[in-house]
Amino acid sequence: MKKSILNQMKVGVLSLSAIALLVGCTNENTTTNTDTSVDETTATEVMNEETEEETTKEESSKEESTKEISSKEESTKEKSSKKESSKEESSKEKSSKKESSKEESTKEISSKEDIHKQKDIVATLQDNDDFSILAAAFEKTNLVEILQENEPYTLFAPTDEAFEQLLEELDITEQELLTQPDLNKLLTYHLVASKILAEDLKDGKSVETVNGEKVAFDFSEDEPMISESMITSTDLEVSNGVIHIIDTVLIPKDFELQKVDTK
User: Is the pTM of this model over 0.85?
Assistant: First the structure.
């Protein structure tokens, strides 16, 4: 009886030990499985992170590549735009030069036409109210036909005001002046048988008049002078010469005032 109880107790102890062993194995397996699961999870996370990093790098590389391509395209467009702009500017410049050349040519032709349309010395004086006395004086002499010739002349033309001043100084009338025997000498003293422009008038220079006497220029003062007369305007070009306007009538040495019958 005692042996039977002891045997049963041994069997129970053995059973408990077996259960303990089984429980221990189960715990170890569970722990191992848990550790393995954790390790696998960690590895998966690491792999995912590496994959994300690689994806990010790839995307960044693609963005940089896209930017580089875009930059190259912009540079190409900019160069192309500059070339087009340069071509347009060159074309505009050439066109402008051609237009300018045409305008200058047109002006030159127009200027030549204007010269042909210009009136001669006598007609110019007759059409200007400021030279009525001078025009009438030329008509009283044989100088009108001479001044209508094509040969160039330079006329230093006194205005009506200048003649009125002379009439007052000589104490004569306009009619008495126009009937003077030496009127021709007076008028030819204002004429030079060549075309002399303002740029040709030099200080101290003298020129011979159609009268035969010389007139000298004096530019030492503020106003240009010819003999005792001031040159108030220059370079009125006409078909057969040029007219310079003066404010005083020039009196040649060989002019002699005479009494005349005006009736």
Answer: no
